[in-house]
Design brief:
It is built from 14 helices and 6 strands. By secondary structure, it is an alpha/beta fold. Strands 3-2-4-5-1-6 form a 6-stranded mixed beta sheet, with helices on one face. Helix 12 links the parallel strand 4 and strand 5. 26% of the residues are buried.
Length: 380
């Protein structure tokens, strides 16, 4: 009898402990989920504040390089924040949806075991994200909640300094804005190259020393289809540049090997001509695929220094890194956008004004597609 009572009591105690442990575990999970949701809400609020300041800065003619760099840092953190926010809110997509069609229960079990290796696993997406950002070892769960808090602290520190930044920002004049309808055309925009654009414009507007100085040359190098021509196009379309130069020429024939100084002008296309300008400064844009013939380049440069007015400039673009050495200033080197920046761009194309949170499954699919595109504007 005593043995039976002891066994019953042992079973009751065991089940009681199991129930208590299970309830504690559920409470911890609920608390963690609540903490994560509060963190995501706080992240969203911080991103809205940073986005407002970035939008205001992009609408003003900021010339201070320090402020431009600060805006670029805000944009980078904004891209990371939205990528993180969308990654947390994207649902898990099982492998069988993307695997072979059909299948029985055994196939479903196999697909469940393969889910950890799926390209559409959000945990894997966070590990990919961690290798390209300052968010280390980001995974969905306890570690993700901890890293989310750390990233929020970074944004809060940035937001704390925005008041002083906004005061300085208000001192700069607003840029001319076209009617809203024209902004619906995406080809009017250049995405993710604000810093490079201002660097190029700053070089072009920089006054040259009196006669005797060398002609200013700015190289822009980078892989094919990375956006070199697009960057130059937006720089030349800037009203400050158009008011500064009376003539803007564009050359895109060959590597200058067979080009003579006397025929170079005939092979150029006039991109802009300001007949009302008193100054005779010219801007020549030379677009090449590879290296330039050294002899032809020296002949062209010597002739240009003699014939072109003081303050004239040359921009030369190429896929070859060697072309960086021909410049009189530091070359602008273009590379692919970060995954977070490209996701922000791709999300804008896919969803437009629609909130991605309203379509979580499509958001998850779109994020994976953006990863597979490797930052290519052509595929987008």
């Amino acid at each position: 009898m005593e043995v039976l009572i002891s066994a019953v009591l042992g079973e009751i105690v065991s089940r009681t402990i199991s129930v208590v442990v299970e309830k504690c575990r559920e409470q911890m999970i609920a608390k963690e989920r609540t903490t994560t949701e509060e963190g995501l809400q706080r992240l969203h609020q911080l991103l809205l504040r940073i986005s407002a300041v970035v939008e205001e800065a992009e609408g003003r003619r900021v010339t201070n390089r320090g402020m431009i760099r600060q805006v670029s840092m805000m944009i980078i953190q904004m891209f990371r924040g939205y990528y993180l926010l969308n990654s947390f809110k994207s649902p898990e997509i099982t492998e069988d949806r993307w695997g072979r069609p059909g299948g029985d229960s055994d196939d479903e079990e196999v697909s469940g075991s393969l889910f950890a290796q799926s390209k559409f696993n959000p945990a894997k997406r966070f590990r990919r994200l961690s290798s390209y950002t300052q968010i280390d070892s980001m995974v969905v769960g306890r570690g993700g909640s901890k890293e989310l808090k750390q990233f929020i602290l970074v944004l809060e520190s940035m937001v704390a300094d925005l008041k002083e930044f906004a005061i300085f920002l208000m001192s700069y004049p607003r840029m001319y804005r076209q009617p809203y309808g024209s902004y619906l055309m995406l080809e009017k925009f250049m995405f993710g190259r604000q810093m490079e654009r201002e660097q190029a414009i700053g070089f072009l507007l920089q006054p040259e020393p009196p006669r005797g100085g060398n002609l200013g040359v700015l190289p822009i190098v980078g892989p094919g289809l990375i956006g070199k021509s697009t960057l130059v196009e937006h720089v030349c379309d800037d009203e400050r540049v158009r008011n500064h130069f009376s003539l803007i020429l564009r050359y895109r024939e060959n590597d200058l090997k067979d080009e003579m100084p006397t025929t170079f002008r005939d092979h150029c296309v006039i991109k802009h001509q300001n007949s009302a300008s008193i100054e005779e400064r010219s801007l020549v844009v030379i677009e090449l695929l590879g290296d330039v013939d050294e002899g032809a380049w020296k002949r062209l440069l010597q002739t240009s220094e003699r014939c072109m007015a003081n303050g004239s400039k040359i921009i030369i673009t190429s896929r070859s890194e060697k072309m960086a050495s021909v410049g009189t200033t530091k070359a602008i080197k273009l590379s692919c956008l970060s995954k977070e920046a490209f996701w922000y761009f791709f999300k804008m194309l896919v969803f437009g004004s629609t909130d991605p949170e309203e379509h979580p499954k499509l958001t998850s699919i779109a994020m994976e597609l953006a990863l597979e595109m490797c930052g290519s504007f052509i595929f987008a």
